[in-house]
Design goal:
The protein is of the alpha+beta class. It folds into 2 domains: 51 residues; 132 residues, no CATH class. Helix content is 28%, strand content 18%. The protein is built from 6 helices and 9 strands. One of its GO terms (molecular function) is nucleic acid binding. Keywords: DNA integration, DNA recombination, DNA-directed DNA polymerase, Endonuclease, Hydrolase, Magnesium, Metal-binding, Nuclease, Nucleotidyltransferase, RNA-directed DNA polymerase, Transferase. This is Retrovirus-related Pol polyprotein from transposon TNT 1-94. Pfam families: SH3_retrovirus (PF25597).
């Protein structure tokens, strides 16, 4: 969601998916008094669905303590991921998605189960989880590379694909993020070393309209001719669909 005007569409999509998964109807929603929640179209939809809107008073976030507490937890986690990975603030949205992906796959004290298990009815696989900011090597298919071209391109892991079984990889040389399963990770990765500012490095400037920061540091090492044809990391077999 890029702006608040998309809240209504996001809610209707969530409602359909959640009610289908849980075989239960939403009875109440609790929000603040932001216009994105209070406009006529949203309220009319809630009335037609028989959903009660509970709204907090102005400047009293404690009335929605569960949501506010998670917001603080998520924000702290994003700061840690960005700091630990040496990535710039422009990767904050990706760090948030990565955090929630992992949060849903760890046990919490209140239920002693993962949110994934409570939602889907089965335990999640965690074999495919990798550190945010880990060094990744993206395999280049034989059909697409020249005889002198390296078999892989170096990138940085910045999250998990939402619609496919794969990873989101930032390619500094091309200044873009791709989604792929054809990736091998550096098993000797030390958190925060993917783009270490103390290493020999250079900077490339992104376009002014980019969602990322204007300068992204990348190491100046020569990409090694990694082994195999990159049929995929065996650890990625842990990917499982988020549906029953």
């Amino acid at each position: 969601m890029k702006n608040k005007s998309e809240v209504f569409d996001c809610f209707t999509q969530f409602q359909k998916r959640a009610e289908r998964y849980l075989n239960s109807k939403i009875i109440n929603i609790r929000t603040d008094q932001g216009m994105e929640f209070c406009h006529n179209e949203f309220q009319k939809f809630l009335d037609n669905q028989g959903i009660r809107a509970e709204r907090t008073n102005e400047y009293t976030p404690e009335q929605n303590g569960v949501s506010e507490r998670f917001n603080y937890t998520a924000l702290d986690a994003v700061k840690c991921l960005l700091k630990d990975s040496n990535l710039r603030n422009g990767f904050g949205a990706g760090a948030l998605l990565c955090f929630t992906y992992m949060w849903n796959r760890i046990c919490h004290q209140s239920h002693n189960k993962t949110p994934f298990e409570l939602y889907c009815g089965r335990k999640p696989s965690i074999r495919h989880l990798k550190p945010f900011g880990a060094t990744a090597y993206i395999g280049t298919p034989r059909q697409l590379r020249t005889k002198l071209q390296m078999r892989a391109e170096k990138g940085v892991m910045v999250g998990y694909a939402m619609q496919t079984k794969g990873y989101r990889i930032w390619l500094p040389a091309e200044r873009k993020i791709i989604e792929t399963i054809n990736v091998t990770f550096d098993n000797g990765f030390n958190s925060g070393k993917a783009l270490d500012p103390n290493d020999s490095k250079f900077y490339i400037s992104t376009e002014s309209n980019s969602d990322l920061e204007s300068e992204i540091p990348i190491t100046g090492e020569i990409l090694e001719d990694v082994k195999s044809e990159f049929s995929g990391d065996p650890n990625t077999e842990g990917f499982e669909p988020d549906s029953k």
